[in-house]
Amino acid sequence: MSLRLRAAIAAVFALCVLGAPPARAAGEFTDSAGRIVVLPDHVNRVMPASLAAEALIFVLDKDKLASLTYSFPAGPGPGPYYIKGQMRLPVVGELAGPFAVSPPAAAVSQVHPDLVIDSGPVTPERAALADQITQATGVPYILLDSSLDRMPTMLRVAGRLLGVAERGDDLAGSAEHAINALRGRLLIQSAEKRPRVYVAMGNGLITTPQGSEAAAAIEAAGAINVATSVTPGPFPTVTLQQLHDWNPDIIIATDFRSNWTIRHTPGWASLAAVRNHKVFLEPYYPPGPFPWITSPVGVNQLIGLYWLSQIFYPGDSQEDLRSLMADFYDKFYGVKVSDAQIEAIAKTAGIPPSDTPHLAALPPIGAPLPSAVPGAVNEPGRRGLLPTSPPIATTPSYLMPK
Q1: Sheet bearing 279-281, strands edge to edge
Q2: CA-CA distance, 223 to 312, in Å (whole number)?
Q3: In the list 68, 157, 280, 327, which could disulfide-bond 20, CB 3.0-4.6 Å?
Q4: pLDDT per position as a tens digit, 232-286
Q5: 144 - beta bridge partners?
């Protein structure tokens, strides 16, 4: 049996197990928490319960977004990254998590969506919240597992929920390629080649601890996250002494502030990562709208898997990350990335030049599918300003407090 046929059969099986409806949503749907949700006949207005869900809906069918979770100031900061119509949508915050709006049911009633989608960790607490909101508002609320392993299935399922099955299948094929490319790289690595990595946010001493959502992509790439014992809370912190004890091989800065601090503040220079010029700025802008590895945990991390593979295992990677970047933004966000924008990212992210096929040139999974649909306009500036709404825990720097 060919690999392509096996992939097609596996995709069909996964959809059947999850109870995905046909392109026109109707009837019952079993979500990732095992909840049976009765869907409306038509799904035209979808409310994201989290920033990850917002990203998911945006890449599949941005016109179905009924609201935004966070607002961003215009100008040189992190916005606006949506087309003009999306910027007029109500900004209501997240419905789940430590910075959820209160009461969340009132926010749903304000938006009047046909459906609420939450993409994130599937926990009893989130499932209970979903049930409570549906009981209070009558609006169906589904949970989708956003973990990297489940991402291709999530794209296919969400595509059918939104009535864009072909789009979902197309993006799922690209997700499978990114995940499989990384796994293939890890198979040829010896255990001693696994790099020890620290992720820095804000003042450099805010991090993503082992096992957190924001650290999932780093750990999936085979790296050892050194942040083992951290101060608990929405923004886990460490001390400079802890960092010296860990002495990471690589430091990933999620924002300009932490990147500058690490490179120019006394006390950091003796760390191995700084001495060996292994401090990398996580790509985000240009052109946005989401960073590559931290938060939200979802489709935005797919291009990050290729990037992590190159900085963790230099010399072993065969992908042309510049070409992959251009194709990813075109395919997922509908954004045309200029050569100047690509070089701006490459300069601080440690991206080497190379020459391999674009994502668009890769063989599709199953039957031929259409390429990307038109999407968002380019974001005018790199992050630097804070959002007007509260930040999210284990989130990228553009949502971090100063």
Answers
A1: 224-225, 196-200, 250-253, 279-281
A2: 7
A3: 157
A4: 777 889 999 999 999 999 999 998 899 999 999 989 999 999 999 999 999 875 5
A5: 119
